[in-house]
Design a protein that fits this description.
about 240 residues, alpha/beta, Undecaprenyl pyrophosphate synthetase, six-stranded parallel sheet, two-stranded antiparallel sheet, binds 3-methylbut-3-enyl trihydrogen diphosphate, binds magnesium ion
Length: about 240
């Protein structure tokens, strides 16, 4: 768990850049509805945007990118939409695997996997293993992720470590080590698209000192240029981490 300004890096131009950007990709459904199209068309376009943002990150100085793709609450949606989304995730991994491996992307997933289709779980484990040696961009995709669910699973692991006597008392770092994000730096900046100003169960432990940026842009309209503008503004923020 790293949560100090040490997370923030300076770009080649000397500008302060967030090292870790996390994105709540919202607004796919409204983007499609505005055009009279099925929601899944919006999700497909959203997946195309993820590819573009992933490609843009290294040149923007972003070394860690975490994207919220499916929450523990999203199972409430229609079977058609849920299955359609799961198909999009599987195709994304299959089609992007070679490119990500070649471009130095390390892909990882957070969230509870057991509830996902076995074939999707296998694809996820396969691409994680295949890209484990990469470090140009650390891409984390949150699927069936909920912060409360993650904290509950982490608390269970932590209790087991205490019971086994591996640790005598629990520290913040011990709990962080039990999260799905163990070893990941905390996000410096969390972006939510589509005008909603809530976190919807995303990274409650990790984002306590993140800066937040809310934009009206719907996710399928979110381009690398929009990201670059937001990153430029980040450099003007004064992050105090509780200090004077
Ligand atoms: C975000 O877009 C994608 C997921 C949550 C899976 P939405 O599907 O939530 O789009 P809106 O909010 O209905 O427009
Ligand atoms: C949050 O978006 C989850 C993802 C982006 C995957 P939602 O659209 O599900 O969130 P709410 O329901 O508006 O809070
Ligand atoms: Mg939404």
């Amino acid at each position: 768990m790293a949560k100090t300004a040490a997370n923030v890096v300076s770009g080649a131009d000397g500008e302060v850049r967030p090292r870790h950007v996390a994105i709540i990709m919202d607004g796919n459904g409204r983007w499609a509805k505005n055009r009279g199209w099925p929601r899944l068309v919006g999700h497909r376009r959203g997946a195309e945007r993820v590819k573009e943002i992933v490609r843009a990150c290294p040149s923007l100085g972003v070394n860690w990118l975490t994207v919220y793709a499916f929450s523990t609450e999203n199972w409430k949606r229609s079977t058609e939409e849920v299955l359609g989304l799961m198909g999009i995730f599987a195709r994304y991994i299959e089609r992007e695997a070679d490119g990500m491996a070649a471009e130095g992307v390390r892909l990882r997933f957070i969230g509870a996997r057991e509830r996902l289709d076995k074939k999707l779980q296998d694809l996820m484990a396969g691409i994680e293993a295949r890209t484990a040696g990469n470090s140009r961009l650390n891409l984390t995709v949150a699927i069936n992720y909920g912060g409360r669910d993650e904290l509950t699973r982490a608390a269970t692991r932590l209790a087991a470590r205490l019971a086994r006597g591996e640790i005598s008392h629990a520290t913040e770092a011990d709990l962080a080590d039990c999260l799905d994000t163990a070893g990941h730096p905390d996000p410096d900046l969390v972006i939510r698209t589509s005008g909603e100003t809530r976190t919807s169960n995303f990274l409650p432990f990790q984002a306590t000192y993140s800066e937040y940026e809310f934009t009206e842009t719907l996710w399928p309209d979110f381009t690398p240029d929009r990201l670059a503008e937001i990153l430029d503004r980040f450099g003007m923020r004064d992050r105090r981490f509780g200090g004077a």
